[in-house]
Specification:
Length: 223
């Protein structure tokens, strides 16, 4: 077992952000130290499972893999005004009926809208198909696989305000409501299957299957 802390970024009262690259680097450091502490070879690792705090939102450039802004963390309230604007427009009922969720800054979609409205040039790049969106599970699989997969599991997708839990797909009406192009979205997969292998350079020139990703509360239930 090995764990590391990373920086909590709070630029204003109620705002909570993380550096997505720092999260990725701490994961790599943990991988290295688990291997060293367990006195094993990379070839002995059967597979990797990822669990995450579900609603935290990352947007990154499709060509460079560089985030356009900090990850906005699940507990951040910085999209309060966006939620209120949608409530005032009478949109809360349709969101709740499709997603089972309340219209609240807790969830990913309004965090993504906040990035569109507050980071110059991001909305245009998104509309041009140049950006990718995901929760931390998506970000880590993308980075660990060397950019081979852009995916999320159903437990994470269902916490975005964009996923229709009855039809089990990204909902086009909700995407239009939030102004989010579907080109940004990860493919939704099950919580346990072999999605891909890590890029060889992460495990001393050995590829390790990534075989599970699931949100923290669901992971705790199964645990």
């Amino acid at each position: 077992i090995y764990q590391m802390e990373f920086t909590q970024i709070c630029p204003k009262s109620g705002y909570v952000e993380h550096n997505a690259d720092e999260i990725y680097q701490t994961v790599l450091e943990c991988i290295k130290n688990v291997i060293i502490n367990a006195s094993i070879e990379p070839e002995e690792i059967d597979s990797i499972a990822i669990t995450n705090q579900r609603e935290t939102t990352v947007v990154w450039d499709r060509n460079t893999g560089i985030p356009v802004y900090h990850a906005i963390v699940w507990q951040s309230r910085q999209s309060d005004e966006i939620c209120q604007r949608l409530k005032d427009a009478g949109r809360e009922d349709i969101i709740r009926k499709k997603t089972g969720l309340l219209l609240d800054p807790y969830f990913s979609a309004t965090k993504l809208v906040w990035i569109f409205e507050n980071v110059p040039g991001v909305k245009d790049k998104a509309l041009n198909g140049e950006l990718m969106f995901g929760t931390i599970d998506s970000w880590l699989v993308y980075k660990l696989s060397g950019g081979k997969r852009h995916i999320t599991d159903v437990t994470n997708a269902s916490r975005t305000l964009l996923y229709n839990i009855y039809e089990q797909c990204w909902d086009q009406e909700l995407l239009e409501l939030f102004g989010i192009p579907d080109s940004m979205l990860p493919e939704v997969v099950s919580s346990s299957e072999v999605y891909c292998c890590t890029a060889p350079y992460h495990f001393y020139n050995h590829e390790v299957p990534i075989a599970a990703m699931i949100g923290d509360q669901q992971a705790a239930l199964f645990g």
